[in-house]
Amino acid sequence: MSNTQLWTLIFVVITFSFYIWIAYRSRVSDTAGFYVAGGGIPAPANGAAIAADWMSAASFISMAGLIAFSQNGYAGSVFLMGWTGGYVLLAMLLAPYLRKFGKYTVPEFVGDRYNETARLVAVVCALVVSFVYVAGQMSGVGVVFQRFLGVDSTWGVVIGMAIVFTYAVLGGMKGITWTQAAQYTVLIIAYLIPAVAISLQLAGNPLPQIGFGAILDDLDGLQRDLGLEAYTEAFTQTSMMNMILITAALMFGTAGLPHVIVRFYTARSVRAARYSALWALFFISLLYTVAPAVGAFSKYNVLSTIPGTGVDETPAWFDSWMEVGLIEVNDLNANGIIDVAGVGLGPGTELIINNDIVVLATPEIAGLPAPIVGLVAAGGLAAALSTASGLLLVISSSVANDIYYTRINPQASEARQLVVGRIAMGAAILIAGYLGINPPGFVAEVVALAFGLAAASFFPILFLGIFWKKATAVAAAAGMTVGIVFTLGYQLWTLPTFFGNDLILDIPATGVGTIGMILNLLTILIVSQFTPKPSELMQKVVEDVRYPGRSELVVAHAEGTLHDGGAGLPVDGAGAHPADPSEGRDSGPER
Amino acid sequence: MLDVEQRQRYWKRNLRLMSILLVIWALVSFGAGILFVEPLNNISLFGIPLGFWFAQQGSIITFLILIAIYVWRMDKLDAEFGITEYEQEVHHG
Q: What ipTM describes this predicted complex?
């Protein structure tokens, strides 16, 4: 076992014992604790948990490389603006109101606000989005174990499954929230230490966000000398229209992701939900403003040392990544030198660099000691496993709460619901593990598809559900269906893994969610004009959600006692209307 | 509890605040980061072309400031309308 492996093992064991200890300390015995941590999480901790939940292996391991290498700088900004911009929408348009509405899941909001058909569509979407993500996380776990500990990647996934199972099943949302807050701490420290070190080394400035300005000019020059387009130049990789479409799809997709939205239900109050969004973006921006700097520094390092170097004279960090196949050198013209000038990087050239190595290789490039390398590996695992556990919770709550409790056995006792929730989570972990060991092979495309679907299906119904009292149930179901079918259809039609047809109007599969979302909005606006309006009572609940202070109507709704008029409020029309939410829980699925 | 007239005033103020902040949100990300990136790139800040900076860091920093202004103004708005129970737990069903 090498020095690096030893340190990785030490950090992994320490951090994981810590996570499991936290889960044990915050174990739960009721459904409110299991699904929404009893709603009692303070805003800063909730914000850190949102940040860890949402920043996955992709943000931690891949993003810097994606920006710098495959997107050549500027074009990679879609990830930076798109993923963070969604939080502005969440904080202002959704989080406080959904928190006040006071339920467990996104499908539950849809079911209450609209009707059961809409809820079912929402459940299907939530399951698809979550499984796709979780498969990616699990295979990421396997890769980190394989690369840093020399464990077979299948065994890596199995170890990851066992760990997630322990703390997710034991602690539910409460355990996961506190575990994720701890995981955030580990991952951000692991990200910042090498970034600061490399910034000091290359720019003489400990702040990577500012330090990377010092090398940008040189980087642009290096790229031009090699016959590549400048790093900071706009629209070299994508057109202006595609930048807008992809950025918007990622923004509205983030604002519609079920595992992020559910986080605002864990906030202590409406005010805490607003603050949670602020804390979440603050914690996320610590990583997201550093990532472009790490990418630029790494590309600068590679381009200033590697091109023109003899094939046998490459530095040690380069060789070790070449050994595991993540850097490829093909001396196409057999002159013994790595030629990049005039040919560029990537497939079919002499130098191919995998996006995933940039962050993991940074400490080695900067010549940092083995313990730091181990810490970065532990941070990558924290990022992957925290997201995996959050997604598993969405899966289990969709199955146990929205399918079992609502549709199969509404009389189920609290204890029985918990058992079903835990069984659902166990089953979800097994499926996730299987998908992690046998990744479908088109994970990147399907993740893009999931974001597009979240934007095209969830955002309009959530937004209009709050801001437009007259949005009807039929319109919501129709809107979601139109959004999903259009987006999914276009993506399947164009993705090379499926039908591989030419793009229509040059619209990329990653950006089509924006158009699906607009179609969804239009459908709801039009269909609502011709279909039965929501009941007076529902319209009143929707209106009450907008105002501060305690509303008897909203509390009665949240507690599920609205139907009997116990709050002493007008109930005329209740029970007679197809869209009446008060029927959701008690009268079963049939209308 | 607010009366009907107070509620209308509160909601109007809230919508106005949101509209202003969302216009800035769009101007910084889609505007400075994408539509006007090329002219802005002629100006440099710490060696970083300005349009490129907005696309990679400036927009994120602005988003953070926008949410900070939002939570601060909403707290003030709540206080102005005499809302004291806003830290109260909202129950789950």
A: 0.93
